[in-house]
Specification:
The protein is an alpha/beta fold. Helices cover 42% and strands 24% of the residues. The protein is built from seven helices and nine strands, in the order ββββαβααβαβαβαβα. A nine-stranded mixed β-sheet has the order 1-2-3-5-4-6-7-8-9, sandwiched between helices. α4 links the parallel β6 and β7. The longest helix has 26 residues. The mean pLDDT is 93.
Length: 240
């Protein structure tokens, strides 16, 4: 892992890094971190998207956690492969013609997840022991995070949601056993409500809570973010 830049403000240090071809950011408090949270960004976003940076600041400055984010394949500073381009071009064509893009979007998520899971595990190895590990990812971050949380024993708690069974793997969800906070927008125009509820139902965790709010996909209320921070702080702080 090679760190390429460093800035510091409001009790948080932000460092850009690269690991092989993976670009990422690590936020740390000015004290010794007591836990590490991995943040998966949404579709079309990147490692420094406003929501990602806001979560990192809350967790680092407010709770003393380290936070890491990486660009998913074909996002941010990462190039698209020929396969990515094929799927994205077909999706746009289908949407322009009034067709259903969901099967192609699910295909893209499956492709990205196969690459993202080993990349996140490599990042975890390179960062070393920063304490108990949590994961926070909704929308695309949920679809890619499900197989990661299921496969990675270092992850002890997760915030997931804004995804459904047509976009994410119910099989991977069944393999998750850690505590989960799952977010649903009741009027989500991208994820049918029944598919979101089916994905929550598929989670294998004995401790899982559904937090549903009215509104569309991007209308998650601010208090849910605050609640999710407390959820992770409670579980990871308790383990630290």
């Amino acid at each position: 892992m090679r760190f390429t830049s460093l800035t510091s403000a409001d009790g948080v240090t932000e460092r850009s890094f690269t690991l092989d071809d993976i670009p990422g950011v690590l936020w740390t408090p000015h004290t010794e971190p007591t836990a590490l949270v991995l943040v998966g960004h949404g579709g079309g976003q990147h490692k420094r998207a406003p929501g990602v940076a806001a979560r990192a600041a809350r967790l680092a400055a407010g709770h003393g956690f380290a936070v890491a984010a990486i660009d998913a394949p074909a996002h941010g500073d990462r190039p698209r492969s020929a396969e990515h381009e094929r799927i994205i071009t077909e999706m746009r064509s289908r949407m322009a013609g009034g067709g259903d893009p969901v099967p192609l979007l699910a295909e893209l998520h499956t492709l990205l997840a196969a690459q993202t899971v080993p990349e996140w595990r490599s990042v975890l190895d390179a960062l070393g022991d920063l304490g108990p590990v949590g994961y926070w990812g909704v929308s695309l971050g949920c679809a890619l995070g499900l197989p990661l949380v299921a496969a990675e024993p270092r992850i002890r708690a997760a915030v997931l949601g804004l995804s459904g069974t047509s976009l994410a793997s119910a099989e991977a969800a069944a393999g998750i056993t850690v505590p989960v906070r799952f977010l649903v927008q009741w009027d989500d125009e991208r994820v049918p409500r029944q598919e979101a509820l089916a994905l929550f139902d598929a989670l294998g965790s004995a401790e899982k809570t559904l937090h549903a709010n009215p509104g569309k996909h991007e209308d998650v209320p601010g208090f849910e973010a605050d609640s999710a921070v407390r959820f992770l702080a409670g579980h990871l702080g308790r383990l630290g």
